[in-house]
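User: My collaborator sent over this chain with a note saying "see what the structure looks like." That's all I know about it. Can you take a look?
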Amino acid sequence: MRTFVSAVALIIGVLLTAVAVPAIWVDRNVVQEDGFVALSGPLGQDADFQQRLAAAAVGTIDTGAVPDALADVVRPVVEAAAGSLTGLPGYPAAWEETLRKSHRLSFPDPASPPAYAETSTSLTLDVAPLVALATEELARTTGLPLEAPEQTLINVGQPEHRQWIERVSAYAPLGYSLAIGAGIALALALVAARRRWTVVFSAGVGALLLAALWTYGSQLARDAVVATASGNEVADMFKDAFAAAASGSFQSWTAAAAVAGGVLLAAGLVIGIASRGRRAVSR
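Assistant: Without extra context I'll predict from the sequence alone. Here is the result:
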């Protein structure tokens, strides 16, 4: 009976872990704003993405207030602003604020203002901080009274992805409870086992299998995200780069699981050999 209870508890622990770890990663790196900014922040350092994003941001600046006589003068200044935007001292802060505003649109807090409470796509980039930075620089350079909009949205994904975001927001935080349950189940398996080394060994095997499963699953998820197209070049560049960054970040977790599995596997073997040696000596 003890062996049966131990086996069932071990299986439950492994299954709970299989769901808990990806859920915790998603909550920490996607659902939580600080994690999303930390994961997405390096994307703003990519030279090609920087240039395209800057061009898209500057291209939305409303120059309707510019007199026709000055249009030919202002046009090259606007074009030059796209190339110099990423070199401005305020660019890092504007990029971070862009990520934070975008996250609030995609993962709105129930207490957020209505402007942040609704969006039609899975992820919406609000590049208004970048547009404001470019507008400020243009106004300083030309002396014209230019005003930046409060929102400048670039949609990423498709409208049906809204349901995915809602489900992720609802279920990802449950990963912590599942992890606690997995820990309790594995502890029960260890306590109930007649030969505890078998539980340690089996847990190591389970961790290695989960690491392989998570690696394969993350690759499938990345390929699925990359395969979708939003119809906007900048949005697709962000989407593809974010998917690659997310996959790389999760791979560090799967690598840690593989290392832990190897350690448990070796520990189980050592404990098993030692226990057999003690039994042989006692006889």
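A starting point for your reply to your collaborator: The mean pLDDT is 81.
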